[in-house]
Amino acid sequence: MSGNTNIRIRPVSDHDRPWVTEIVRGWGADFVVTRGRKVYPQTLAGFLAENDKEEKLGLVTYEIIGDQCEVVTLDALRQFAGVGTALMARVEKAARVEGCRRLWLITTNDNLDAIRFYSRREFTIAAVHVNALALSRKLKPSIPTVGCYGIPMRDEIEFERSL
User: Fold this and answer.
1) In which domain, by residue range, is 44 found?
2) Mean of the per-residue pLDDT values for the chain?
3) Which of 1, 76, 106, 153 would give a disulfide with 84, using CB separation of 3.0 to 4.6 Å?
């Protein structure tokens, strides 16, 4: 697949919720931890990316609180094919419609692919929450101590973009 030509984005439906749970469980539990709180992505608004054969290519979930939209999960099942970019564009559009002024998210210090992805899409580092994963592991003990590329997982990096 090249570019966005074969990617369709649609809202997550109730029918999709078990699949969303399955994706999230791949990260060690049926919830994620963001800034010291448990969040259940399968209960949130979101979008699916599919190809012309209705095969799922990716998922994004988000939560709007006030004038801020937090991207809670982003999972491209096919990397480097435009899936993540298409999903993020759709969340940004939804956030603008809802009057949000800030789009933001958390990733971990080991997730170099995510850091690259967001940096290339004009997100800036708003904060580095040093040793935040110590608290996160109290809520979700399954968070590994060593992550991508053998990097010790310690910190949360908060990315943002003004809308």
Assistant:
1) 8-162
2) 94
3) 76
Per-residue model confidence as pLDDT tens digits over 85-100: 999 999 999 999 999 9
What would the pLDDT profile of 25-49 be if each residue is shown by its tens digit?
988 899 999 888 999 999 999 999 9
CA angle 138, 144, 149 (to 5 degrees): 145
| Closest-CA residue to 50 (of 91, 86, 25, 103) | 86
Report residue 23 as tokens. 């994706």
Distances (CA, A) of 77 to 14, 38, 55, 157: 20, 24, 10, 22
Q: How many residues does the chain have?
A: 163
The verdict on residue 3 lying in a domain is: no
pTM of the entire predicted model: 0.92
Determine the Cα–Cα distance for residues 7 and 18; give it in Å rounded to an integer: 22
Provide the CATH number for the domain around residue 136. 3.40.630.30
Domain count, the chain: 1
